[in-house]
Design goal:
- It is a single chain.
- The protein has helices at about 15-30, 55-65, 80-90, 100-105, 165, 180-190, 205-215, 250-260, 275-290, and strands at about 5, 35-40, 75, 95, 135, 150-155, 155-160, 170-175, 195-200, 225.
- By secondary structure, the protein is α/β, with parallel strands linked by helices.
- A 5-stranded parallel sheet has the order 3-2-1-9-10. Strands 4-5-8 form a 3-stranded antiparallel sheet. A two-stranded antiparallel ribbon has the order 6-7.
- The two termini are about 15 Å apart.
- The structure holds glutamic acid (GLU).
């Protein structure tokens, strides 16, 4: 197997201590496997992309000694790929005319993350006078064996999820016309032949949806490893919204040592250079996750 891993940031702001942990984990896993590490800018949600953020992330990764193998790809430039994946999913897709508020108001049940599970209102056709807004994937019914998605996460252990209970029919093409993250990420991982996905545990609840799409598209399912997310004093995931500050690009080794500690990596003596840091961290990661 030739290993391909990736870091896939959304350019909504500069890299911070939380996103550095995800970047570092994916980088170390690729290097410990002697594989390729690619960087993909996930700017498909053009409404959320912040001008200049992608360039800033790319430069910060370089300052921190993490250089992508091969060209960096941008989701906003790959729309035909998503269109083609959507076309292949056509038999499983239907138009939905519901507004967000209508779905929230229906309150059939809530997903474990508190989001409203889509109640299936438009599953059997749009009500008269309704216009299609979004396009949804019909997930298998609760009792159908195909609804139960299982995978073995390399950090979190065995995970099982029944999509009918956790999300219901989910959106592939959004009401604002943009492709949904779930569709884009699956199309990209397949196209780029990604074998190992290493990312933050906030995306654990997206994984079953992504595996369901892989199965329908008949593309391989990568191995997954979800690292714990970094939280602030209030227990909130570190993000721009919760006050995360940009990394100090002039002191990369200190930030990397802290990120490694957050991953539970004991490096021994304090590294004095990026090279010393990488050598030690790749070795420790490799002993824990590869050898
Ligand atoms: N773009 C996503 C994020 O920044 C990560 C996607 C992924 O790793 O699958 O949260």
């Amino acid at each position: 197997m030739s290993y391909v891993g990736r870091f896939a940031p959304s350019p909504t702001g500069p890299l911070h201590a939380g996103s550095l942990v995800a970047a570092l984990a994916s980088y170390l896993d690729a290097r410990a496997h002697r594989g390729r590490w690619i960087v993909r800018i996930e700017d498909i949600d053009e409404a959320r992309a912040v001008p200049g953020a992608a360039q800033d992330i790319i430069e910060t990764l370089a300052d921190f000694g993490m250089h992508a193998d091969g060209e960096i790809v941008w989701q906003s430039r790959r729309k035909p790929l998503y269109e083609a994946a959507f076309a292949r999913l056509e038999p499983h897709v239907y138009p939905c005319g519901c507004t967000r508020k209508e779905i929230a108001d229906s309150r059939v049940s809530l997903a474990p993350d508190g989001a409203a599970i889509y109640p299936g209102t438009c599953r059997h056709g749009l009500a008269p006078g309704r216009q299609p807004r979004a396009w949804r994937l019909r997930v298998p019914d609760r009792g159908d064996p195909a609804a139960a998605i299982r995978f073995d996460d390399r950090w979190q252990g065995p995970i099982g999820e029944n999509l009918a209970d956790s999300v219901g029919d989910f959106v592939l093409k959004r009401a604002d016309g943009f492709w949904a993250y779930q569709l884009a990420v699956v199309a990209d991982d397949a196209d780029q032949q990604v074998t190992h996905v290493v990312r933050g545990a906030d995306l654990l609840e997206s994984t079953a949806r992504q595996i369901a799409l892989q199965q329908l598209l008949k593309v391989p399912t990568p191995r997954y490893l979800h690292v714990p997310v970094v939280v602030n004093e209030l227990g909130e995931k570190l993000s721009k919204q919760t006050g995360a500050v940009a990394l100090d690009r002039s002191r990369p080794v200190e930030a990397l040592v802290l990120a490694a500690r957050r991953l539970g990596l004991e490096l021994g003596t304090a590294p004095r250079s990026l090279q010393e840091f990488q050598d030690a961290a790749v070795a420790v990661w490799g002993r824990r996750f590869v050898d």
